[in-house]
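[#protein-structures] MJ: dropping Sushi, von Willebrand factor type A, EGF and pentraxin domain-containing 1-like here for a structure pass
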Amino acid sequence: MTNGARIADEQITASSELDDKSLAKYGRLDNTFEANVRYGCWCPSWEDEQPWLQVNFSRMVTISKIKTQGRPDADEWVKSYELHYSSDNAATFEAHKDVLGDVQTYIGNKNRDTHATNGVTPVIYTQFIRIRPKTWNDHVGLRVEFRGCNGVNYCLNNPCLNSGACVMYTNGFGCSCPSDYTGNACQTYITPPPTLPPTTSSGTTLPPTTSSGTTLPPTTSSGTTLPPTTPSGTTLPPTTPSGTTLSPPSALQTTQSNIGGTTQTNLDTGPTNPLTTTSSGITGSTSVPTGSVSTTMGYASIAGFALNPIPAQEFGQSFSVGWVMTAGTNVTVAIAYNGIPCCNAIALSNTGGQCDCLISVPGLFDPDGVVNISAVASNLVSSVPAYIQIEVLKTITQVSFTMLTTYSDFGTGVEGRGSQKNIFPAEYPVIRSA
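AK: finished. C-alpha cells for Sushi, von Willebrand factor type A, EGF and pentraxin domain-containing 1-like:
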C-alpha cells in the first residue's frame, strides 16, 4: 500500500472521512503531511463511533503482518484495534480470532510516527479486510500497511491424513493429529505396545484361557494353533469334539483386502501348497510373507530432488524457493531459512514446483550475510534433503551520526548538543568526527 503501485486509491475505503484532507486513500504507511492538501493519514468524522478503514485487494491474499502509524502533523493515533475480514465479497465481515477462538485485539501506536508491527496468527485468507480502531489518542489518525502473499490457502484441500485437522500458520500449515497417528501430515500410525502373556511369580508363562477359564491351545507368534503333544513331546493327531481323529489338514491360502475389502478363506486340496497371504492395496496386489502388512501402497521413492539457484535477495523481503524432482509420489516438500520454517507444498508427484518464503522474523534472517535454505522432500517410503545458500543485500536507511570532539578546549570525545548532536560552542575551536 505504501506507494500505490499495487493498491489503487479506489481500493481503499472507510466508514467516514473527516474532510478532504483526511481521505481513506491517505491512510498509507509513511504518508506525509502537505499543508493545504492532506494531513497525511485517514481520519474519520467526529460523529463516527465505530470507524473502520477497508482495503479491497482485488484477489485472494494471505495476510500475515500489519504495520500502523498515527497522524504525522498531530498527536492522534490508534492505541488498539481489531481486524475484520469478509469471505463473501464484502457482504458480511467477521472478527479475526486467535487460536483459542477469542476475538484478537492488537496493540497499536504510542506516538505519531513509530511503526507498530503485529504478526497475524492464524493468518487471514481474504480479499477484503477492515481495521477497526477500538481506542485512540485524542482522535483516530491512521496509516497502515498489510504484509503477506498472494492466494495461499494451505488448508483449502486439507492436506492432513487420517482425520487430522489442518491449522494455518504464517509460513505454512500444521496438522493436529488423532492420538494414534503422528507425522507432519498424520501419516504414521503409532503401533500400540504388545500385550504380554501372564506369568507366574517364578516367571513361567501361563497358557491363555477363555473368560470361563477354559485353557486355549498354544499358538505360534503369527497366531497359528499348534497341535497338542504328549508329555514326552509326541505330536497328537487332531480330533473332532467327539474325539474322531482328523486326516492331515490341507494348506490354507488367505486373501486380505486392505481398502474396504473382506477376508475369505479357500481350502486347496493340493498337499504341497504353502501358507501365503496376498495383500491387495490401492494400486494393485503384492505378495508378502505371512503375518506382515504392507504400509507403503501407492508411494514411489523420491529421486532427483534438488533446489534451484536463487539470486541475491534484499534483506527482510520474501522470496520464492523452487525445486526439481524426477520421481516420487505423494511428496511433501518443507522449506526452512536459517532453521526457521518457511513454506511447504504437499501431494506432489514427479514434478518441480515452488513456494514463497515469507520473512516474518527479519532479525533472524541474516546474521552473517547469507541465508541457509534447507529443504526436505518426504513421503512414507523416502526422505531426501537439499541445501543452498542465498547472498543477502542490505539497503542502508535511517542514517544518523554521532558527532564527538577530537580536539577542543573543553575536552575530547564530547558529544554535541541539539537534536542532531552537532552543536558546539562557537567561541571554542573544535575538531570533530562523525
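MJ: nice. Residues 305-392 form a domain with the Immunoglobulin-like fold (CATH 2.60.40).
AK: one more thing. The chain has no helices and 25 strands.
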